[in-house]
Amino acid sequence: MTRFTVNDQPVEYRLDPQTPLLWALRDASNLTGTKYGCGTGRCGACTVDIDGRAARSCQVSIAQVEGAVVTTIEGLSHEREHPVQRAFLAVQVGQCGFCIPGFVMAAAALLRRDPNAGEEMIRATLTNLCRCGIYPRIVEAVRRAGRLQRGEDVIPAGARPGIDPAEAAGSVPALVAPAKLSDR
Questions:
Q1: Which domains does the chain have, with CATH numbers?
Q2: Where is the signal peptide (predicted)?
Q3: ∠ CA 139-118-152 to the nearest 5 degrees?
Q4: Which end of the chain is more exposed for a tag (fewer CB within 10 A), N or C?
Q5: Residue partners of 133: CB distance under 8 A and separation at least 6
Q6: Which of 28, 109, 19, 17 is nearest to 69 (CA)?
């Protein structure tokens, strides 16, 4: 049996000790925010926090985390109030969203170590892959999250990006019915 803490809860897995942490989290604990992307540790979709450091959970066995503290995207914060989550929402980073949990976890670990991380450090540290190509927005969001952590920026509580349906309806040009052949 392998024992460690996941999202502030002690867990005991009765799985083969060589089971990748990713599968223990997803299959045994139903924490599906940690995504399977490539299985080789290259894409970063499976990034979690292990004892304060970002790690690719597909490359770590549960035996390797015996006694450790693991945090997944579900345990980072409740109601998405972590500065990185708030900044990602405010900057509207997500496109398809598949890679976002891994990026959020990697960014949170980076900003814990260096809340003043600049663009060069962010790009060098966040080596996760995004098929949608949202890298400029990710960099912008991580920099904003750093400012939030340092108290240099504010995102109003509960602010969620989006368009008010009433505003959206007014901004779309009215469709004009095509002219009938008899009107020509």
A1: 2-75 (3.10.20.30), 83-156 (1.10.150.120)
A2: none
A3: 90
A4: C
A5: none
A6: 109
Summarize pLDDT for 90-132 with one digit per residue, the tens.
Answer: 999 999 999 999 999 999 999 999 999 999 999 999 999 999 9
* Residues sharing a CB contact under 8 Å with residue 3, sequence separation 6 or more, in sequence order: 10, 11, 12, 13, 66, 67
Segment 15-25 shows an average pLDDT of: 98
| Nearest residue to 19 via CA among 54, 68, 58 | 58
Please, which residues have CB within 8 angstroms of residue 14's CB and are 6 or more apart in sequence? 1
Of 67 and 184, the one with more pLDDT? 67
pLDDT, one tens digit per residue, over 82-94 is: 999 999 999 999 9
Residue with tokens 């597909």: 58
User: If residue 55 lies in a helix (H) or strand (E), which one and from where to where?
Assistant: strand 53-56
